[in-house]
Amino acid sequence: MKVYFCHPENEPGELIEQSQFKEQRTVAGLSPINFELDWNTNYCSVNNKVIDSGVKLTDYDDQYIDVREQDILGPKPVIQLKFPMFTFWTYDPDIWIYQYDHPMTALDNNFVTVGAWWNLSNWVRNTNTGIVPVDINKPITIKKDDPLFRISFYHKDMKGDIILEQKDEDEIPQDMKDRREGQFKIIDDAPASLPEKLFCPYDKN
Fold it and tell me: Is the distance from CB of 42 to CB of 57 less than 8 angstroms?
């Protein structure tokens, strides 16, 4: 079984295989930048350079973060990180992907990652990392090469090997690009059908 991935050309990213990858099928996504965000002062910097000074974080929608009004209604905000971004696809059936927290981020970076499952065989997509601050009164601080999340791959044949193969962004096959465009139409026109595309059967076991 083979899973392909790439990252945007203008934003190098890195996936590091965790120990015993063959058995656990787990990689960690590393940050390609230095990043700091203070929710209370609307301060945000990338590689030590302040971005959009004076703009409310809920008005941000750039290449680094996305903060939406509905994501700040709870006791703690949910912030979408757009880095590192990886696109995954596969031609093999019944492969599932699970993006979840890395054990060091709560201590080192003041956040935990919101977990996400999806059926990679049915759904081509980019990683989109939702995070929640541990202490809302302290900034989120990320250094280049800090691990931000883990990704594990699952298949009903847990003894079979999964091979990761990196591609360049311009090597994404046209049929996968077409499938992605079709997915956007489903999101816009038939969102009620999303569960049957994305639901992971392991939740039933």
Answer: yes
Beta strands 49-50 and 116-119, pairing class: unpaired
List, run by run, the mean pLDDT of 10-residue segments along the chain (205 residues). Answer: 83 68 76 88 79 65 77 85 90 92 94 92 87 93 94 80 87 90 73 64 44
Rounded to an integer, what distance in angstroms lies between the CA atom of residue 184 and that of residue 190?
Answer: 10
Structural domains of the chain, with CATH:
2-204 (2.70.40.10)
Peptide bond into 84 cis (omega under 30): yes
DSSP3 helix / strand / coil % (the chain, rounded to 5): 20, 35, 45
Please calculate the CA angle 69-73-78 and round it to the nearest 5 degrees: 75
**Kind of pairing, strands 49-50 and 163-166?**
unpaired
